[in-house]
Specification:
This protein is mainly α and 145 residues long. The protein is 75% helix and 0% strand. Helix 4 runs antiparallel to helix 5. It is globular.
Length: 145
């Protein structure tokens, strides 16, 4: 019986559901561009950026405030994530500019759901990494060279 109660207690934790939602959005952001144009380099660069984001959050998982968001932050975060899900369902093709920005909307939506506007600054490194990863390669390559 102890095992069953432990499993049920995980289902009531918001951190479990935030991790599940974040994982689903991460898989969607890696899979959708690959389906549109099978460029493995694009997926690898995006995947490395997401590994960096997950690693930064994992290092500070004990100190990051969860469940400290207010009703307005939850509503805006849920709206952003809903926009991402609806937009990814009705994508128009590989030239869709909004498709490149959707990971940033997902990241901001998850942060707002988890910690609200007042703790948004605690995630500045993770959001900056996502922001850099959504810059199109056509703009980024002349800067790197």
């Amino acid at each position: 019986m102890e095992v069953n109660n432990t499993w049920q207690s995980w289902l009531y934790k918001s951190s479990f559901w935030l991790a599940a939602l974040g994982s689903a959005l991460l898989v969607m952001h890696l899979q959708l561009p690959y389906v549109l144009s099978p460029n493995l380099n694009y997926v690898i660069v995006r995947g490395l950026a997401w590994v960096g984001v997950v690693s930064l959050i994992w290092q500070r998982r004990k100190t990051l405030p969860i469940d400290s968001s207010d009703l307005i932050s939850i509503a805006i975060g849920a709206t952003l994530i809903t926009l991402v899900l609806v937009r990814s369902w009705f994508f128009r093709g590989s030239n869709d500019v909004l498709l490149d920005i959707l990971p940033l909307f997902s990241a901001v939506g998850l942060v707002l759901l988890a910690s609200g506007f007042k703790n948004l600054k605690l995630y500045k490194r993770e959001l900056a990494l996502v922001l850099v990863s959504v810059i199109p390669f056509g703009i980024l390559m002349p800067i790197v060279r």
